[in-house]
Q: What sequence folds into this?
């Protein structure tokens, strides 16, 4: 089943990213593939150690642990078992990216140059 993309989202598979890197750097695609994989592995390795990864002039990747998750049955307890207590689920982790001041400025300049207008926030935000 094919995923439907959102209007403001670009889905790039690794081979396309290798090709994009190749066009910017003239590196052979095989080398761009190896570099891409190595960069991702390094990011994952650092984050899995519980550390933040800072790319100077770009931004910071960090891992956040969710603390507000509970067992689904806690939200709709069984009427027969009123003493049921919610049990926390296994913690979930998410990767957070925060642009640096310089990175934010670069993003802003490119967005303005391309005529991007910030859409009104949706009700989901």
A:
């Amino acid at each position: 089943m094919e995923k439907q993309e959102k209007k403001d989202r670009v889905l790039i598979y690794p081979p396309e990213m290798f090709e994009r890197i190749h066009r910017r750097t003239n590196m052979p695609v095989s080398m761009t593939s190896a570099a891409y994989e190595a960069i991702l592995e390094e990011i994952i390795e650092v984050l899995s150690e519980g550390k933040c990864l800072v790319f100077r002039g770009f931004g910071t990747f960090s891992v956040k642990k969710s603390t507000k998750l509970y067992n689904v049955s806690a939200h709709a307890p069984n009427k027969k078992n009123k003493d049921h207590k919610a049990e926390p689920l296994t913690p979930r982790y998410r990767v957070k990216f925060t642009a640096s001041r310089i990175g934010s400025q670069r993003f802003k300049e490119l967005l303005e140059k391309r005529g991007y207008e910030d859409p009104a926030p949706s009700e989901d935000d």
Observations:
- The chain is about 40% helix and 15% strand.
- Residues 29-48 form the longest helix (20 residues).
- The chain has a mean pLDDT of 80.
- Residues 11-49 form one domain.
